[in-house]
Amino acid sequence: MVVINLSRGWPNPALLPTAALATASATVLASPPIWQPALQYGPDEGFQPLREHVAHWLTEFYQPRSPISADRICITGGASQNLACILQVFSDPLYTRNVWMVAPTYHLAGRIFDDAGFAGRLRAVPHDAAGLDLAYLRQELVAAENKALHERNMTPEYKPARPWRKIYKHVIYATPTFSNPSTLTLSLSDREQLVRLAREFDALIITDDVYDFLQWSADPAALESPLEHAQLPRLVDIDGYLDGGPSDEWGNAISNGSFSKLIGAGMRTGWAEGTKSLAYGLSQTGSSRSGGAPSQFSASMVAQLFPTRVLHNHIAHVLQPAYAARYRRMMSAIREHLVPVGVTPTSSEGIVGGYFIWLKMPASLGATELATLALQEHEVEVAAGNMFRVQGDPVTEKNDFDDGMRLCIAWEDEDNLEEGVRRLGCAIRQALQNR
After folding, report:
1. 376 Cβ contact list (under 8 Å, min separation 6)
2. Is residue 270 within 8 Å of residue 212, measured between CB atoms?
3. What three-state secondary structure class fits 78?
């Protein structure tokens, strides 16, 4: 048997718009007015035509109360690279108290926070079907502020003051829509309350808004028509209007977007959106000031996908229906092979999306041991829940996910998705018999 990988969160190569990218590349390289600036360092804020296209595209999709302007957009090297840049500009490893991560969390973000000087200061904020534990977050923010007062940590001293940046006291990190790994979406009420908390405690909310365009109805009988608008406003949108808008020129939320799940991760191109001051400050990261925008040539190619709506059509007529079919195929297999042995999938009513399905294992069956058994004896690779713990958080009862498991719908073909779930069911039955 060949190992079936239900862990890898990569886009399936068959779903990438290679023909459109070939045409875009040819267009760029055939036109000196495009390729000459595209092959130079480029402006710090990014390739201007793409900034303008992204601003219009996001306005069309999210329908915020006011149109998004290009000066709110900074072109990046993708969500991961840009997370590091955000921390370089807007956090201080001494003054910034903690990084609060909605948990379970994207497991590779922890290393980025560690590299920014926050090792040992990452804290989990539990999120489940009942919502985000905002009471716990408030309690812990108050405790962190009391500790800072006691230690007289009231003024940034490590990083020098600069006119293009603000150092925040706290960082809050989340994937609010179709979260990786839990697949849950923060409610509008939780989003609004989180923005209010961020303003009260001087926190910057960093949201990975990378799955938002990949959405469909959970109902297998639903008519397969494109979903052209977001179901909820982003936190950066809410910060723009809630209680009269941002409390200062910087605001308290930044949206971290990426083309990785839509065009291909190797393009290394994304965008960030915040207030005008926040977007400009981000562009002043030292590496951008030295070398210009981190994805100048790729950005020039991506920009060619907008005027003829190639990207819009690819999302609506290729990605959404393909991932909807994969999701429904895997959910059907879960109901057939896993539910009878006590597995519970994440609630799947209404609009769903993203790359993942989160499972809760039968009582007393640990996902870590099960994942090892599934790979070694049944040749199916899955991601055990504690992979998505917030590393270093000492509050283990709020940060233990060994009863959870993440399956990915994106990487394998549909037949393998079903077969992989069947193999996982066999592994669970074996584990239950061995107890």
Report:
1. none
2. no
3. coil
The enclosing H or E element of 312 equals: helix 310-314
**pTM of the predicted protein model:** 0.97
**Tens-digit pLDDT profile for the chain (435 aa)?**
799 999 999 999 999 999 999 999 999 999 999 999 999 999 999 999 999 999 999 999 999 999 999 999 999 999 999 999 999 999 999 999 999 999 999 999 999 999 999 999 999 999 999 999 999 999 999 999 999 999 998 888 889 899 999 999 999 999 999 999 999 999 999 999 999 999 999 999 999 999 999 999 988 877 678 899 999 999 999 999 999 999 999 999 999 999 999 999 999 999 999 999 999 999 999 999 998 889 999 999 999 999 999 999 999 999 999 999 999 999 999 999 999 999 999 977 889 999 999 999 998 899 999 999 999 999 999 999 999 999 999 878 889 999 999 999 999 999 999 999 999 999 999 999 987
Measure the CA–CA gap between 60 and 102, rounded to whole angstroms.
Answer: 28
Angle between helices 367-378 and 414-434 (to 10 degrees): 110
Burial 224-237 (b: 16+ CB within 10 A, else e): eeebeebebbbbbb
CA distance linking residue 166 with residue 343, whole number of Å: 46
Could you tell me the CATH superfamily of domain 4-15+311-434? Aspartate Aminotransferase, domain 1 (3.90.1150.10)
What is d(CA 295, CA 360) in angstroms, rounded to the nearest whole number?
A: 39
Single out the residue of 60, 36, 63 nearest to residue 47, CA to CA.
Answer: 36
For the chain, the distance separating the N- and C-terminal CA atoms, rounded to the nearest angstrom, is 26
Q: Rounded distance, CA 365 to CA 343, Å? A: 10
Instruction: Report domain extents, the chain.
Output: 4-15+311-434, 19-310
Give dist(CA 215, CA 321) in Å, integer.
9
Enumerate residues 6+ apart whose C-beta is below 8 A from 295. 46, 75, 76, 77, 78, 267, 268, 269, 270
SS3 157: coil
Q: What is the dihedral of CA 422, 425, 426, 432, to 10 degrees?
A: 180
User: Which of 2.40.50.140, 3.10.290.10, 3.40.640.10, 3.40.1130.10 is the CATH number of 19-310?
Assistant: 3.40.640.10
Site of tokens 């036109």? 31
